[in-house]
Write a structure and sequence with these properties.
Layout: E1 4-7, E2 13-14, H1 23-26, H2 33-43, H3 47-55, E3 60-62, H4 73-82, E4 86-88, E5 93-95, H5 113-126, H6 132-135, H7 139-150, H8 159-172, E6 175-183, E7 186-187, H9 195-205, H10 208-220, E8 227-228, H11 232-245, E9 250-258, H12 263-279, E10 283-289, H13 295-299, H14 301-314, E11 321-324, H15 339-348, E12 352-355, H16 365-375, E13 378-381, H17 383-390, H18 399-404, E14 409-411, H19 416-419, H20 423-428, E15 442-446, H21 459-479, E16 485-491, H22 497-503, H23 514-525, H24 534-545, E17 556-559
Parallel strand pairs: 3-6, 6-9, 9-10, 11-12, 12-13, 13-14, 15-16, 16-17
Antiparallel strand pairs: 1-2, 1-15, 4-5, 7-8
Helix pairs in contact: 2-21, 9-10, 12-14, 14-15
């Protein structure tokens, strides 16, 4: 597996695309990088062939993805049919099977097939951007209203079908890893008298000791025991089965908490999310969602971040990816711009930020970009939703500002079913990336040592890596006159969580013993008696993107501790 890092002066943009050029697509032997390069030149001039090329290109990770906004309308309709649910076509409200009689409705599965088809077509319009023009709503209001209509179809009873759809789609699009924002905890706890007003006063006074004490009391009181995660038991049984069904795809989950809740309600759900995520390997993050321009979200933004930071410390070890900066001067007063992201960075130190649209609109624009670059905080770029909801696109989008500031970027789909997008579509369009590259820029393909030598019983994989070598050589020749360099980095085995999990399989080369296998490989195959680390691979990328490597292009460079000396 390997992804493309597009280093645009100065670096860098991580597209998250992992190239896999099949020998069948290029129709050339794996042993000929030069031939692959020539074939790619022909391939890129044929739109249909190039589309197949990008379709076969592994996309790496999908990191900003909402489960409920990813299920298409026709699949939601099939959920309702199987569950015996009914639909009021006047209000477009769904009802469970046991309540149909009282609402004088019949199950949709008993309708004539022509009516079912007609309703599905209407839902395909109502629940996607196609329905916006006729809705009479603002783009933001339309977008968030759609979620209320299919919400009854997003519950745990539908997850087995929904998760399989996401994994099948990931397999078809060559997406290896996907995080989807799934569920918010529920609870039946009433806020203690005056708790909300007291906690708001404490954050205004910046009395952090009293604030932390008050939050800690909620946890120690046992109130979290009255909060629930609907479907949690199902997750523990469903996910292992899906891992067996889809061995090449990894699905991980995020909790979310809605920003528009009163402080006590918000904190109970937040703390419960952290508590379970700390215990359950399938949940990897707790996110904050809902429009940031909501009055409560604006008023309590600083309080929410303090609560999030408190939970980070109390439940240590969980990474942070949080939506922030999904606002412009059209939604809020100019004084509100920019500080959402800067406060998040200062308080939470997130590994990733979702959206980040208003990064340059506040007073701290340049210093904030520098901080994000220094912290290596990745920004999840959602081009389609930013354009539809906020009206921000093209030169008005901070995309290029992030690139020039060397902030890592990750292209994501957000709510692909509503927005009618997919990850392949973004990378199908990435062929135009060269148009924004400036002289002195650098593209780096992360390939594999398999691009440098053939191995038995591994022909398809080796073909894919030789294809990357050919692509690197071809692009180096093509973009060289523009002052743009293209290189590839070819690491040998790098010990990562994904590799170790794969080697635990008894059918793997390690026979289910990853530690023994990696140790023996390092001892017997490398000159240094060790395997490279991910940081060492990254160091080579940064070197190749720097001015110190200004004379290097078209090369595939091993990072292998001496496995294959040149």
């Amino acid at each position: 597996m390997h992804y493309i890092c597009v280093m645009i002066k100065p670096p860098f943009l991580i597209f998250g695309v992992w190239i896999w050029v099949f020998a069948g697509i290029l129709n050339l032997p794996a042993q000929s990088p030069k031939g692959q390069s020539q074939r790619f030149e022909l391939l890129r001039k044929n739109p249909d062939s190039l589309r197949l090329f990008f379709q076969a290109m592994p996309k790496g990770g999908e990191l900003h993805h909402h489960y409920s906004g990813a299920i298409p309308a026709n699949l939601y309709f099939s959920f309702a049919r199987k569950a015996g649910m009914g639909l009021d076509t006047m209000s477009w409200k769904w009802y469970p099977a046991d309540s149909l009689k009282s609402h004088k409705l019949t199950p949709v599965r008993s309708w004539k097939s022509s009516l079912q088809t007609e309703i599905q077509e209407k839902l395909n319009t109502r629940w996607t951007v196609k329905g916006y023009a006729a809705s009479g709503l603002s783009s933001e209001d339309f977008f968030f209203h759609v979620f209320t209509e299919f919400d009854p179809l997003t519950g745990p009873e539908f997850w087995p079908m929904g998760f399989r759809y996401l994994l099948n789609e990931a397999r078809d699009q060559k997406i290896n890893y996907r995080e989807t924002i799934l569920i918010e905890p529920t609870h039946s706890v009433s806020a203690p008298s005056e708790w909300n007003s007291e906690i708001r006063n404490l954050i205004l006074k910046k009395d952090t000791n009293a604030l932390n004490k008050k939050l800690r009391q909620v946890i120690l009181s046992g109130m979290l025991n009255k909060a629930q995660i609907p479907g949690l038991d199902l997750i523990d049984t469903l996910m292992p089965n899906l891992e067996n069904e889809f061995p090449d795809q990894t699905l991980r989950l995020q909790f979310y908490v809605v920003r528009v809740r009163e402080p006590f309600d918000f904190f109970i759900r937040l703390a419960k999310s952290f508590e379970i995520a700390k215990q359950n390997k399938y949940f990897v993050n707790v996110n904050l969602v809902a429009p940031e321009d909501n009055p409560i979200a604006l008023k309590d933004y600083g309080l929410h971040l303090w609560m999030y930071h408190f939970c980070q410390v109390y439940y240590s070890g969980l990474s942070a990816s949080v939506h922030a900066g999904e606002i412009t001067q059209n939604e809020v007063d100019p004084s509100q711009l920019g500080w959402h992201i800067s406060s998040l960075v200062e308080r939470v130190h997130p590994q990733r930020i979702g959206h980040g649209v208003d990064v340059t609109l506040g007073e701290k624009g340049d210093s904030l970009l520098l901080a994000l670059s220094n912290l290596r905080t990745a920004v999840e770029i959602n081009l389609s939703s930013n354009k539809f909801i906020l009206g921000v696109s093209g030169n008005n989008h901070p995309f290029m500002r992030y690139i020039k500031a060397r902030v890592p970027l990750v292209i994501s789909t957000d709510d692909p079913a509503i927005l009618e997008t997919n990850l392949m579509g973004y990378f199908w369009g990435s062929q135009a990336a060269a148009s924004i590259l400036q002289p002195g820029s650098s593209l780096i393909n992360i390939s594999s040592l398999a691009a440098r030598r053939g191995t038995p019983n591994n022909s398809a994989y080796v073909a894919s890596k030789f294809g990357v070598a050919g692509l690197t050589q071809s692009l180096a020749k093509e973009l060289g006159p523009k002052g743009i360099r293209v290189n590839a980095v070819c690491p040998v085995l790098v010990r990562t969580e994904g590799l170790v999990e794969a080697l635990k399989d008894k059918t793997s080369p390690a026979g289910g013993k990853p530690d023994e296998f990696l140790g023996n490989f390092a001892t017997s195959q490398t000159a240094l008696g060790a395997l490279p680390t991910a940081s060492q691979v990254a160091d080579m990328c940064f070197f190749l993107s720097s001015s110190q490597a200004s004379a290097i292009t078209g090369q595939s460079i091993n990072v292998d501790c001496g496995v294959l000396p040149n």
